[in-house]
Amino acid sequence: MVELDPIRLKVLKMIQDSGTDLKNASLAIGRNAAYLHQYVTRGTPKVLPEDAREALAAHLGVDEEELRPRESGRPPAPKGEEEPDQPAAPRRRRSGEGFARIAELDVRASAGPGAFHDGPEEATAFWLFPEPVVRHEFRTRSDDLRMITIEGDSMEPLIASGDRILVDTSQRVPVPPGIFVIWDGMGVVAKRVEHVPNSDPPMVVITSVNPQYQTYERLADEVNIIGRVVWMARRL
């Protein structure tokens, strides 16, 4: 165990005061469950990288500057005097303002589509997105977004197994057509869903990008649409 420096002590106290713990705070900033425990107790990493520091500040609702280690080797300037040759630091916006937390779900472990609507309590991790991106690019609310990992090859090459997709659960009507996550009775899958114009009763066409999979039609009432896919991430 390392001797806790002022920053590590502050991180530990802030996490305790916020009612969470090192494990859940680590997951909330997109790291593995032991990340902050190793940082605090083992000194690894020696200094939190900027992205982890900003994410932790956002999670705790504090200014990122409070978690930034002070540079050593320069004595503090006397009160009322500025240090020479040091430009004034730009004013920083509070971390935690301007970021939205998106829950990531492990739908492989779910018994059905209900996991999407149980809320962040079922989350395995959280992703941080700038709020302007959520509002203007995704055109939805962060509470309606869920992140999942794709399994299978039915949507290749557009979406491959292992890709992460962001699902807007507020969009459950396939007009206009697009890529949707649906519950097919066996599992959660991504498909292209399109409404059949002038069909009565309403019908939808369900298509895979991979030509090895058949296109089929279903009554709209028979298709459990969970949400529209609005974003994708792929590991290179």
From TrEMBL:
Keyword Transcription: yes
A GO MF label: DNA binding
InterPro entries in UniProt: LexA-like (IPR039418), LexA/Signal_pep-like_sf (IPR036286), Peptidase_S24_S26A/B/C (IPR015927)
UniProt xrefs under CDD domains: S24_LexA-like (cd06529)
Statement: the UniProt record of this protein carries the keyword rRNA-binding: no
Region Disordered: start-end pairs: 60-95
Domain Peptidase S24/S26A/S26B/S26C, residue spans: 132-230
Organism: Siccirubricoccus deserti
Alphabetized SUPFAM superfamilies for the sequence: LexA/Signal peptidase
PANTHER family named among the record's database cross-references: HTH CRO_C1-TYPE DOMAIN-CONTAINING PROTEIN (PTHR40661:SF1), PTHR40661
Keywords recorded for this protein, A-Z: DNA-binding, Transcription, Transcription regulation
Name of this protein: S24 family peptidase
